[in-house]
């Protein structure tokens, strides 16, 4: 099969901008080959970033505001896609977009719906390329959580690694994929950077604790940590999913009210960093992980990474060490999902999301011309081989 050049776009729960990665992909029998071509991030303008955060629960979002955000985010994704075309030396075949999650509806421990905004028509208009988007909804309709979808990449990528291994992504929400265990499994462990970023923004005006500097100066408040750990989410059986509709400003304020009194800024950041590391480590231990391969923005926080390593007695690697760039792994996942849909292959791993079975994911928006899709693949890929490429 020929190489296909695909752009992957998404904005995670941190809502700081749009990640874009370009990659060449092809199938060689049942082996899927991926060659990274480069990646970048296009930050949201401050006004749009504030508007997105204001639309999250417990805030209100009218139909008018939702329409406005869907358009503005779509236009920003279109600009990011144009950057992606530049990364791909001016040529691409397909764009895949996971959009910007605005709400993930979970009720009675079941995902009822999910909403990603960023109208794909703007991407198609700006690039002339077909766009695969809305990649989570079909999994939810099939009884799954629609997240984390990283399970399909991780299961292919780590198929030949010793197990059980855990692929960890620390974004706004942290999630794990268990590969080589008794059954395929993936789920959100809880807050990754979400509460850390929120607290940092309150303290410094900048929505991240750069290099974990504040947390490094603080001391963990065990009383606050106990309150935060006493959340029913951590006791739910997987598969499960969550988001900022749960772990948000109101959530943090309620926890602070329960401990009473003032919590020093550095102590608050130290405690929230400990919370993320503890809940991730607890999940990894529960799955019998023999090693953990981490990616996502959280791996650039040395205090968080050191705390996680202290919590675990197994090796914790960064995905770059196995050839997959940690900063662009989710954007490369998006490109992979688009490639699978384009070739008629399922993009979910039912055991990881809880879906009733494998499903073709997403909707396709035509580009400048009629759709000319390849013949559907006969066999699902069983392995992913990452080829040397531009890992920037």
From TrEMBL:
Catalytic reactions on record: 1,6-anhydro-N-acetyl-beta-muramate + ATP + H2O = N-acetyl-D-muramate 6-phosphate + ADP + H(+)
InterPro entries according to UniProt: Anhydro_N_Ac-Mur_kinase (IPR005338), ATPase_NBD (IPR043129)
UniProt keyword terms in alphabetical order: ATP-binding, Carbohydrate metabolism, Kinase, Nucleotide-binding, Transferase
UniProt-listed Pfam families: AnmK (PF03702)
Signal peptide boundaries: none
Any one GO molecular-function label of the UniProt entry: ATP binding
Any single biological process term in GO: amino sugar metabolic process
Amino acids binding ATP: 12-19
Family, similarity comment: Belongs to the anhydro-N-acetylmuramic acid kinase family.
HAMAP family cross-referenced by the UniProt entry: AnhMurNAc_kinase (MF_01270)
Annotated protein name in UniProt: Anhydro-N-acetylmuramic acid kinase
Lineage: Bacteria, Bacillati, Actinomycetota, Actinomycetes, Pseudonocardiales
